[in-house]
Amino acid sequence: MWLALLPLLCVVCALNVFKLSVIYALLGGIILILLLSMRHYKAFVGAINAGAKDSILALINTCAAVGFGSVVKVMPSFQTLANHFLSTKFNPLITEAITINILAGATGSASGGMGIALESPRGKIRRSCHKRTHPPGVVPQGRLYFFRWARCPAP
Known about the structure:
Layout: H1 6-16, H2 22-36, H3 41-73, H4 76-86, H5 92-107, H6 110-119, H7 122-131, E1 139-141, E2 144-146
Antiparallel strand pairs: 1-2
Helix pairs in contact: 1-2, 3-6, 4-5, 5-6, 5-7
């Protein structure tokens, strides 16, 4: 049972102790799994084949969603929708959050919509953020200033 933890420990040690890149650390873990499961070779090959077949569907779905989002991005109605939501007078971070959700719904993909929304309105969000009288990089919430998770984009 403790042998199952060795590949994980191998990856963690390779990353933290030997300061290897993630790819080499994972490759070391995979090689250790292969060495530990030599006697189960036939079952291991079947599992790898099934995993490769199942990953194709996820890859095709992701490509289709990103492709659809790219087509939506070049449509004039997309720019109209983005400009409408970006012209509101709310806090820039709230505006950005609402815009990301609306555009993600318009593109049909959360990751595709977020990528498009964060790419296109960035200049508008930044200008809106710095028009206000907030210190750079900070948006006040009541009397407290929230750093890390309530930052405006840097100028």
